[in-house]
Structure formats: structure tokens, C-alpha cells
Design goal:
Blueprint: H1 2-11, H2 16-42, H3 50-67
Length: 68
């Protein structure tokens, strides 16, 4: 059963705890950015590039993790 909890984290070079922390932080960021995107949808003059810039940075971070 331990392998089920460590196989994927090990495949990206992380321990279970490191992966848990990264996933939680990423999830909370995405929830927050989703709220900001809704605000932008209602008021298009606000947060014009905020969410897209952060998603691009997150994508870079995730692809760098997979490469290492």
C-alpha cells in the first residue's frame, strides 16, 4: 500500500510530504485565481493579466519538476 502513496511523488522527484504540500498550495492558488477570474469576468477592466501570468508561471514550475 505504501507504493500507492509514493510512486507518483517519487516519479517527480519528491517525497510524499513534499508532493502533498505542493499539491495543496497549487490547489489553493487555483481556487484563488478562479475567484479572481470570476471578478475579471464581471469587471473586465480589473486583473487583466493577473491570472494568465500566474498560470504561465505555474506551468513552467510544473514542467521543470517533471524534467528533473
Amino acid at each position: 500500500m505504501k507504493n500507492a502513496f509514493t510512486k507518483h511523488p517519487n516519479s517527480v522527484g519528491e517525497s510524499y510530504l513534499q508532493h502533498l504540500c505542493f499539491a495543496f498550495l497549487t490547489g489553493f492558488k487555483l481556487i484563488g485565481w478562479g475567484c479572481i477570474a470570476i471578478i475579471h469576468g464581471i469587471f473586465p477592466f480589473t486583473f487583466t493579466t493577473y491570472v494568465s501570468e500566474r498560470i504561465k508561471k505555474l506551468y513552467q514550475k510544473i514542467t521543470q519538476r517533471q524534467a528533473s
